[in-house]
Structure prediction request, 137 residues.
Amino acid sequence: MAETVFAKILRGELPCHKLYEDDLVLAFLDVGPLSEGHALVIPKEPAVTLDALSDESAAAIGRVLPRLCRAVQAATAVREYNILQNNGRAAHQVVDHVHFHIIPKPNATEGLGVGWPAKRLDQEAGAALAEKIRAAL
Prediction:
């Protein structure tokens, strides 16, 4: 396993406030939270980015993520939240281990702030790109 803070947590070398654990997934509170209840959900598999994660580990995270969201909502009494998952430095990934953030959004100043510089999709270019992506599947 790569030497990351998450690897140390998984090996029991660093403590965490554990929320959930099974054979494939660990969830715990973020030590640098953006809001109360900010949690991290990680696979035990040492994949750096989501595209490198096995189907089995991805499915395991997918099964538990909604339950964790409901638990964070219940514990914090905050209904709105963001799920964030970054891949690579340019996409703001800091820890080289797949991880999902559950970030409660209690008000305008706490939680995740997002800029969204949307553009307009050109229909012809979109059709060509969709075909390329389908071919890659």
The mean pLDDT is 96. Strands lie at 18-21, 25-29, 39-43, 81-84, 100-104.
